[in-house]
Queue: 4 jobs
Job 1
Amino acid sequence: MRKIKIIIGILIIILISILIILKIVTSNTGNDNNMNNENITQENNENITQGNNQNNTQQNTGNETGENEVNGNISNEESFDDTGFIIPTSNFEEVKFNMEYYAISDIISKINSNIKNLVSNNSNTNIIMDMLSKRYIQEFGITQKNLYGHIKDLINNEYRITSMYSSIIENNLEVFLIYGNIANNKYNYMITVDLNNNTYGVYLNDYIDKYNYNIENINNLKVTDNSIEKNKNNAYTMTDISDNEMGRRYIGDLTYKWQNNLKDVYDILDSDYKAKVFATYEQFNNFFANQKNFIYDFKLDYVEVNNNENYKEYICFDENGNKFIFKVTAVMKYTLIILTNQINYNY
């Protein structure tokens, strides 16, 4: 019995020792797991922090880019297509400022005057070449020797502007489309003006025809004159024009229409005036059939000007008491009221 008790005691001690060893091992394993979890957690936190920093960096970069775009610090790449053309940024509008209109009109007159004298004065080729756009010269391979072939239609023919439109390309650059007729045929010009250098470049009708440039499709019109160098013959200047002078010019335009096609005069009559005084062209034509010379002998006495919300009135009086009222919406764009002693119309 005693031996049995001793054996049982030894077994109990062994069992207790085994339990103690298991507890110690389990405790160490838990600590290792906790340490690993802490390391993983720390690594995750570091990764999250790095990710946030990267996101913040990207976000800040995006914000800086957006701010730069808003503040105009990024070059306006959208203004250029893959050929380097500059695309206008606004729609075309009829020219409404007298000084601007006649500055462009004077350029047309100058180049046409030199073209007319080209046959008798070969030195005019230098002047004409100076006035033409470099882009136009390069694209068409124009030289002093072949210049005549591009301008022969303008020699000995009178050019008449029918309408003029402009569009801003950049802050310093403006483009003008000039519609007109020569020898009863349509002939159009395009002129780019560098407002910083006060210079210009002229494109002739064949360039406009090639690209089918027009005011209806602004994206179709492209130029490269982002800067125009100054020479002896391409200075852009504007001069003030008095109301009295503008009155004379409107009378001159009316005289031209009257002499060449009376129907053109009837077409520009004020709608209310036309309905109440000359409902048909036949009435208008019959009334002035025996009085056509009165416009030829017209002598301007003075001009009155009234500014209205949608138009400007030039009221021109002649020495015989006749009155011509031009209701102007843009330069040389007007409707007309004619008042004589024989016409009964309250206005």
Note: Confidence is low (pLDDT under 50) at residues 29-82.
Job 2
Amino acid sequence: MVKKPRNADPKSDDPDDILKVTFDIRRGDRDAFNAAVPAAMLFEGHKNAGAFIAFIYNRERERLERDYNQGRPFERREKPLPRGGSFKKQS
């Protein structure tokens, strides 16, 4: 797969566009992850931390689809996920 340049327009519809994703994480969790990444690269074949995170991200998305949506992709959201805080169940 050829890596596409990052798209400047996050509203683009092309699913193959490369986008930057940011999130907050505890320092200790980040440090532990950074210590584990070299083993993942060596034994599991991930070429860098970003590739490893993308693998985890997609594996978890697939699990959520399988467990909560009969294995089908969830409907795409128009709005981005809320930043910070927690999700609230809709009634």
Note: The chain has a mean pLDDT of 82.
Job 3
Amino acid sequence: MFNKNFKKSLIILVACLMLALVVFAACDQTDDFKPVVTDGISGQTVEDNGGIAVKYGDYIYYVNGFFGDATADNSYTNTIRAGAIVRVKTTDLDAIIALNDEDLSSSEKTERIEAAVKEKVQLVVPCFYFSANETNPDLAGIHIFGDRLYITTPNQSLTDGGQKMYNQLVLESYKLDGSDRKQHLVIAGEDWSTDTSKTELLLSEVNGEVYATYVLDDKLVSAKASDASTKVIAEEITNVKFDKANNAVFFMDEEGQICQFNVGASEHKVLVAKVDTETSKLTYTVTAVSDGYVYYTQADEKNATLNGLTVYYAHFDGTNVVNGAVLNAKPSGTYLGWGAKAIYVETETHGSTTAKTYTVYATYVDANGETVKESLFDSRDSITLDKIENGVLYYTSNSVTYTAKLGTTEEHQFYAKSLSNYSTTGWAKADVVGNYIFALTSNSASVASYNAETEKNSTSTNITLVQEVEE
């Protein structure tokens, strides 16, 4: 009797253990996303927000390859996919890039680099970044505000009919270890079928609050990430220009006036009012914005002598709107606005030779209507003006991009080399973060670094983290 009872009890015990193992396995599925260990690091300096990559303290967070299929699986699991967000320590990234200099065969280098990427690069956000905004790629990319990482991704919600609304963008954020996923905002039109994936969306942090500012259905909308509240700032707008560095948007309202909206404000401000009298009817065209200034031309439907060639500026200084002119006539090439001045390049050919001098000028129109020019610097190599941000001019000469702090005599600084050699795919243009250049192609991410000693870029290195193939 004892043996029978003992055997019966043993069988029951084994069955209970097997059941417990099954339950435990179900609760610990290997595809559940596991956040990375961050060692409690917070409050680090954020550098180069937006674009392919962002530096946070000793780490660089970057998009793991360009991904353009909004309908693909986007589950919050440990699956490694193109478009996901990964991170790597800068010291480890330098070591990975340095493997290109090892005395190895090409295949051996590839194997070593792949192994190093697998070991050192960490999956942070498994959901893929998505945007179809190719009109203004400067607004696209990942952002870190506070201790959270923000991305846009396709909407996975269903309509009443059971259809996923992939054509809508969703703003999400995560802690920097990939945990605490939050959906803040759905960018949706008046009808669920409206495609919002191409929306130009400016992400900003103002006074500790994260805002999404965008144009949809000819409306300027400001939304708070914290409570998903949205406000229509203006309707029937045109000629929209985003000033990312200053968290501002300039546009033409329904009356044809030039307006400015500062992110976080409750309403927009009219900078250049309409003029419609018996003798004059002005129409404006916004040509550029920079550092809180808007640049525009104007024509008069009732006065043909106003030919629209003069370039004007308008700026709100916190108290008043300041207006003036920077150019009496638009130059043949590119010009950039710099406060109450314009920056452009003039080319001088020396005699019958092919030798040329390229001079960068700052110019404005004085109270007498005369053009005043000031030579800033020149070069025997051609100069391409790229942008001005926070008083710093970015320009390219002889395949090297430099920065020049305008209004000072400080030496120009190296910024990047051969940027045009790095491919641009969709929203993802080459992104400079410190001395690194990140680039994306379909399903792939790469990086190169500048070597100050050789004054050359390193070999472009594939740093795509890939899913292991189970054998």
Note: The longest strand covers residues 356-365.
Job 4
Amino acid sequence: MKPQLLTRTIERFCWVAGAVDSATGLMLIAEPETTLTLFGAQAVDSGLVYLRFVGVFVAAIGLSTLFPLTLNPQARWARLPTVLETTALTRLAVAVFVAVCIWADALTLPWVVVCLTDLLVASAQLTLRWKLER
């Protein structure tokens, strides 16, 4: 595949995958039952299954943050700014979601630890990212 065609293919792939995942995620937040019906799936009664599902995403954020550190220094520093930005965005989204759930009495007050931790780590990530540009 020619470099220009490959570049366009990758960009289009990212647009489609990003749009589909973003829409699905927002649908699962706003209308989980309807979204599951559209997928032909049913909600699982076990809360532990959902916690494990969330655990996969939490682990993926951690592994995404660690991945650049396994690369040679040049590749590491080419990727770290993006990792800092994207994982901070995820952490901010989680913090807002958890805060809203606490406010709406859908989560108990101890969940504020998750909210504050994600806010603190995201703030540190964005600060470090900003310092890289200076």
Note: The radius of gyration is 18 Å.
